[in-house]
Amino acid sequence: MNIKELIRDIPDFPKPGIIFKDITPLLANSEALVYVADQLAELIPTNAKVDKVIGIEARGFILGGMIAQRLGAGFVPVRKKGKLPSDTYSKSYGLEYGEDVLEIHQDAIKKGERILIHDDVLATGGTAKAVCELVEQLGGEIVQCNFIMELSFLNGKDKLDYPIASVLQY
Ligand SMILES: O=P(O)(O)OC[C@H]1O[C@H](OP(=O)(O)OP(=O)(O)O)[C@H](O)[C@@H]1O
Ligand SMILES: Nc1ncnc2[nH]cnc12
């Protein structure tokens, strides 16, 4: 299945000079949605146990939940500042078109739990790196960071010290 056809380039969004990869046509296609979730679950090495999948707000929630269901794992949301109701740890970070703060609940991960981090796009890697640091702070073991797509020309991989995998590369 050619899912690249269902990802469109939007120039100058959200800022001049950025070519935004819009996954909404892919999400709207029922066959493509199941296909990409299956592909993401298959990126994880066979026999690698995963206790929890982290999805990064907002686009990481959609496939993150579908991967968790496929792996029989729990789902943990990492959210933008001020959205999680209980006690949190926070990390500020920079991404391709700005900066922000991400948070995780302090009790979301137990020490030694095996974690898959999922997001839709790996661009500069700032977002994923911040999430890795939050997981490390809680004592989780990161099995893999996986993405629908990697924008290889931005070298996000170089920022991350864990196995990286993606369904599509640009
Ligand atoms: O590798 P980076 O340069 O850090 O960029 C990748 C991040 O940028 C986008 O999130 P965004 O903050 O736009 O949030 P959204 O999912 O809420 O749209 C994308 O979903 C990743 O989380
Ligand atoms: N170019 C891009 N398209 C979509 N999401 C992104 N997140 C960071 N850079 C992005």
UniProtKB/TrEMBL annotation:
Catalysed reaction, written as an equation: AMP + diphosphate = 5-phospho-alpha-D-ribose 1-diphosphate + adenine
Location, primary (coarse class): cytoplasm
Location of this chain's protein in the cell: Cytoplasm
Keyword check for Glycosyltransferase: yes
Enzyme nomenclature, EC number: 2.4.2.7
Keywords assigned by UniProt, alphabetized: Cytoplasm, Glycosyltransferase, Purine salvage, Transferase
GO MF annotations, alphabetized: glycosyltransferase activity
Pfam family, one: Pribosyltran
Keyword check for Magnesium: no
Enzyme class: transferase
Pathway(s) where this gene product acts: Purine metabolism; AMP biosynthesis via salvage pathway; AMP from adenine: step 1/1
Domain Phosphoribosyltransferase: 26-146
UniProt record similarity statement: Belongs to the purine/pyrimidine phosphoribosyltransferase family.
Subunit structure: Homodimer.
Function: Catalyzes a salvage reaction resulting in the formation of AMP, that is energically less costly than de novo synthesis.
NCBIfam families to which the protein is assigned, alphabetical: apt, PRK02304.1-3, PRK02304.1-5
Protein name: Adenine phosphoribosyltransferase
Species of origin: Aquimarina litoralis
Classification lineage: Bacteria, Pseudomonadati, Bacteroidota, Flavobacteriia, Flavobacteriales
